[in-house]
Amino acid sequence: MPERRAVDFARLAGRQLPVRVMVAKDGREPVEARRMLDVLKLDVLGGQEVLLSAEGEGAERALDEMVAFVETDHDAKPAGA
Q: What pTM did the predictor assign?
């Protein structure tokens, strides 16, 4: 995941408080999604799968938002551009 995307991902995860959002890749130990450096260390590349989990009140909503972020092609040009 490029640095800019990791920053945006971590910020979004941080806005989910009090929900604790975790992210993992390739069977590695999950890391807190709001910790940008930990997210960068996962070295997620476009098209790779990650596992998201969340716990706390509002976890389902938080996961929906995080999944929407992950599934978005942030490099795609806007329609009409």
A: 0.85
